[in-house]
């Protein structure tokens, strides 16, 4: 009992630290759905499931109470796995349209919960000072095990499908490590509910706590892991309303570019801005093309605009663009105000430092 209480407290502390940091750094997660999913997984898996899972085997409670703990723990388990699958996909590539997967998860979770609470699904016995809870309903056991391994299959599918699209090797290794870690967690839990062997129970505990600790460390130290690893920014361009290029940066090469290299969709965006240089304060403009999103932002008060090309616009990029505009204007207000005649664009070289500050996850040499 004392060991289990210590383990529960450890899990709660890790979960609370992670949840608190996620809340205060929620802008690092790219979109609200990703933020809510990461917060919920700490609560569902790290606090509710972990606590009920361990307490359900303690003989200090009556058998009926232990069974209630066990059944509720299954509820949090199946929801937690669904969230893990969602987070895994959000980290790789955010998509709002997940209708089929949502319907599938809802159906299988509904079946599991129905069989858990509306049938005599379990038998409970006291063995060596602990409760052993076995599945009496073999259909429930089979469906739950299938669900567990479907989630592992989804991890593998997403990782294999998008692996080559992840920009840097460090992110690839970290994502692969997390995928393996949580797959081992699912396997050890599955082995325990199948055999009721306490070796697998404590193997699950060790694997989970190790994974939760590492996840919290990476959330704090490497937040870029949680904002669509397949997303790209290609070009970042600042130009005066007269059409003169003030600064241009290519995220793929990590180098500044000049106007002679600008072409195609970038020129379309620039022409659009120049023909629509009107007051659009506090509102990002967007041109959607086949494989690109062109983000446009204007500052009429200081007579300049920026254009950014990416394969997918998200909340993180929106905030970074606005933060860039605010700092660039503050540092260059007098220069922009006094622009006339021959313009010395080298005076705006400080743009690179601001780009590095707000777009760090997308700069290859930093990642």
Tags for this entry?
6-stranded antiparallel sheet, 367 residues, two-stranded antiparallel ribbon, alpha+beta
Lay out the secondary structure:
Blueprint: H1 2-24, H2 32-55, H3 63-92, H4 99-117, E1 122-127, E2 130-135, H5 138-162, H6 169-195, H7 198-221, E3 233-240, E4 245-250, E5 255-256, H8 265-275, E6 285-288, E7 293-299, E8 304-310, H9 315-337, H10 351-358
Antiparallel strand pairs: 1-2, 3-4, 3-8, 4-5, 6-7, 7-8
Helix pairs in contact: 1-2, 1-7, 2-3, 3-4, 3-5, 4-5, 5-6, 6-7, 9-10
Protein described:
This protein is α+β, with helices and mostly antiparallel strands and about 375 residues long. A hairpin with a 4-residue loop joins strand 6 (about 285-290) and strand 7 (about 295-300). It has a six-stranded antiparallel beta sheet with strand order 5-4-3-8-7-6. The mean pLDDT is about 80. The protein contains ten helices and eight strands. It has helices at about 1-25, 30-55, 65-90, 100-115, 140-160, 170-195, 200-220, 265-275, 315-335, 350-360, and strands at about 120-125, 130-135, 235-240, 245-250, 255, 285-290, 295-300, 305-310. The two termini are about 45 Å apart.
- DSSP summary: helix tally: 10
Strand content: 5-15%
Largest sheet: 6 strands, antiparallel
Number of strands: 8
SS-derived structural category = alpha+beta
Low-confidence stretches: none
Q: Mean pLDDT, rounded to whole units?
A: 82
Placed side by side, the strands forming the largest sheet appear as 5-4-3-8-7-6
